[in-house]
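Weekly structure sync - notes
Attendees: PM, LS, DV (DV joined late)
Agenda: review two folding runs queued last week.

Item 1: First target. Sequence and structure tokens pasted below for the record.
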Amino acid sequence: LVTAAQYIETGRNKKVIVVGGDKMSSIIDPTDRATLPLFGDGAAAVLLEPNTEGYGLIDSITRSDGNGGKHLYYPATEETVRNRWHYAHQDGQSVFKAAVTNMSDVTVEIMRRNNLMAKDIRYLVPHQANLRIIDAVAKRIGLPREKCMLIIEKYGNTTAATIPLCLWDYESRLAKGDNLILASFGGGFTWGSIYLKWAYDGGDFSK
């Protein structure tokens, strides 16, 4: 989203589609009962285009720390394939602690930077990795669960697709000018937060 917004802001492009998609079932060991139930396959997209009313991506914070790679990684070599070690693995407790701390920190930072209080936020749009992580981040910034977009019970953790899927699922509930805070965490470790001002009124688009 940050990269797409920069293409729009420079005038290089008038419309940019950002697609997030992962087929996690292809890299999860079907015998790994600790990891397999957590993930789902999915893809979703968002469209960005110029506006002169101050809507869209307002601010962003993106961070990374390669030291977390050993806790959440996707290795693949001839040896790992031969020994069935090439599937995605994660150290759940280490990932949980890092996700809660880092997602909370960047969310609080972006709200402070833009003088936003919990009452100013229509929805927190969190990466759908784990409900306990989402609850912990929401508690840190003082948001009740009903102000968090939640789709994990429908689709599981679809990794790169989770945030655009949230926006699609909640689109009809959004109104022009709504303040959204996006927060994500992923392998590596990588994490970030975006302050987004929604640009149009949602509705029933099923007809």
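Item 2: Second target, run right after the first with the same settings.
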Amino acid sequence: VGIDTKQYLNDVNVRSEKRLELSIPLDAFVIISVGELNENKNNKVIISALKKLNDKNIHYIICGVGDEIDTLRAMAESFELSENIHFLGYRTDVKDLYKTCDCFVMPSYREGLSRSVMEAMASGLPCVASGIRGNTDLVENGKNGFLCSPCDSKQFADAISKLSENRELREKMSKENLIKIKEYDISVVEKDIENIYSEVLNIKQKSHASV
């Protein structure tokens, strides 16, 4: 799995334009999730974390569609967070939305090597993710993001709070992600695959030659 990291370079103008389009204050701290809205993606824990934080300057962008949408909307409304949680549905401008935000969240119960986490890293976003297989390959706790128990909204709240209150920490984690994601650039991945195929073919050729 790899991505073209050059597609995710930051653009300050896009950040301002998108915030105005979405009616999000320019000085707000904005987090984002991208993916299908189902039980596994566990967006509920982030909404619960925002309830704990009770900070009207924190906004949450949710991109995606799925059978949990009504439950999530009702939860946001019951927590009086409707103005701070933005359900954007299916989007074709996710690259620009990443550039609009300050932090990426991935609270899933199960994941492979998540493309959306890699895209967020390439966009220079600190990542707050569940400490599960796949996420732990990409996120090192305290270095380029935070890893939390998927069932613990307080851990997510604490991680989001640390990032929202500390610009220096965000910038440090952003730089770490821009470095780390180079390992997953499509050019590197393609070369690795090429090397694997070459090695397998050489073994087969030697095997046939010895028969």
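Discussion on item 2: The mean pLDDT is 91.
Action: LS to circulate a short write-up before next sync.
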